[in-house]
Specification:
single chain; about 210 residues
């Protein structure tokens, strides 16, 4: 087989997937939750990559070294993105022409990911990677450990804690929906457990 044809055939065997279901099951669940939370905050997230194989990682490592382009990774072999591990995913802003140029977008997504327990590549001191998120046991597992087959434990399923309404918000609900006047609300407020009572009554009205 001629060299060019051999190289083309070889490239078709490289694995680069954006399929969330190819992530480890616990990471996949949290990845989907992450996307949902971002969208609730008005952040149009698109998962662009989940797992890759050693050959694709080698092609990334070659960029800026033996191949044209800028350096995009310092890893010769995959770790968290490995198809054997399935512990990382990358994202982009789902807006054509502005996939990677909105720093505020990635900062907001990074904050959500970190709240869930993911490590965000935007915090890295060397070769920042804003689109990257990984489950590394909250920083306890390194790339070398993952390449050696030492994987972090199951990532806890993230559940968003509903923020309690403020007392002023609760008072407004009681006035509007229960028809309570200011005097009655003041009376409730002066009760020993007034704060909790006002909030619970308002929550029951919603």
């Amino acid at each position: 087989m001629p060299a060019v044809r051999w190289m083309r055939a070889r490239r078709t065997t490289m694995l680069k997937s954006r399929d969330i279901s190819k992530l480890r099951a616990d990471v996949a669940v949290n990845c989907r939750t992450f996307v949902s939370l971002c969208k609730k905050e008005g952040l149009p997230v698109l998962v662009t990559e989940t797992v890759r194989d050693a050959e694709y990682q080698a092609s990334l490592y070659a960029k800026g070294r033996t191949e044209p382009g800028s350096i995009v990774t310092n890893q010769k072999t995959p770790s968290f993105h490995s198809d054997k591990a399935g512990l990382a995913f990358d994202i982009a802003k789902n807006v054509k022409g502005h996939e990677y140029d909105d720093a505020a977008f990635f900062q907001k997504c990074g904050a959500i990911g970190k709240r869930m327990g993911f490590t965000w590549g935007g915090d890295w001191k060397s070769l920042k990677d804003n689109p990257h998120f990984q489950w590394d046991g909250r920083g306890k597992y390194t790339s070398a450990m993952v390449r050696a087959g030492k994987y972090p434990p199951i990532m806890p399923r993230y559940v968003e804690v509903k923020q309690s309404m403020t007392k002023d918000e609760a008072k407004a609900i009681l006035k509007e929906k229960a028809g309570l006047n200011e005097g009655t609300i003041v009376f409730l407020d002066n009760y020993r457990y007034g704060d909790d009572l006002i909030r619970k009554l308002a929550e029951a009205m919603q």
